[in-house]
Write a structure and sequence with these properties.
Number of helices: 3
Structural class: alpha+beta
């Protein structure tokens, strides 16, 4: 009879492999909480509190996240509730946070809040409007989603007053050239 594969591997190699597996499992299975600062999609939960700030462009001053990624509101949403789910969130990922959102620039802290989505994530709201990213924006300050009519209603930039900006200016890149590389957003 042939010997099993395991018994053919020298004992020091088996022991080394066992140690490597144990160290990998310990690193992956940590029960403590950790925070990541790497890139993430708009649909995933943020690893820390979201910063909402402002940027000036051809459509006026509008809200962005702390990295300069433009955020939008959807005319179909009710105050304090999101109607965007399924395929809608693939094109319009919700702005999410793990903590309480904070304001910077001309954004008002008193207008920031959150709602809990059906998947349990906390979506950031501004003046009661749920906020979203647009998958077609690939770099800071782009407003390619401005005025888009998709999933049954218009998508608009958000003014610091909490109102929708319905003027033109979509497709602008106020602070940086468009990047074909895409890039991560946090």
């Amino acid at each position: 009879m042939t010997r099993s594969l395991l018994t053919r591997i020298p004992a020091p190699v088996r022991f080394g492999a066992l140690i490597a597996v144990a160290l990998t499992a310990a690193a992956c299975g940590s029960s403590g909480s950790s925070s990541s600062t790497g890139a993430q999609s708009g649909a995933s939960a943020a690893s820390s509190a979201m910063v909402i700030t402002t940027k000036a462009g051809s459509a006026g001053t509008f809200l962005t996240n702390g990295s300069g990624r433009t955020v939008y509101l959807w005319a179909k949403d009710g105050m304090g509730s999101s109607a965007c789910s399924g395929a809608c969130t693939a094109l319009w990922p919700p702005v999410t946070t793990a903590g309480s959102p904070t304001a910077s620039g001309s954004a008002k802290a008193s207008d920031l809040g959150t709602i809990t989505r059906s998947d349990g994530t906390k979506q950031v709201t501004y003046d009661g409007h749920p906020l979203y990213y647009y998958a077609g924006d690939s770099s800071a300050g782009q407003t390619n989603g401005q005025g888009t009519d998709s999933f049954g209603a218009k998508w608009w930039l958000v003014a610091p007053a909490g109102t929708s900006i319905t003027t033109s200016g979509g497709g602008t890149t106020p602070s940086a050239p468009a990047s074909s590389a895409g890039g991560g957003w946090s």
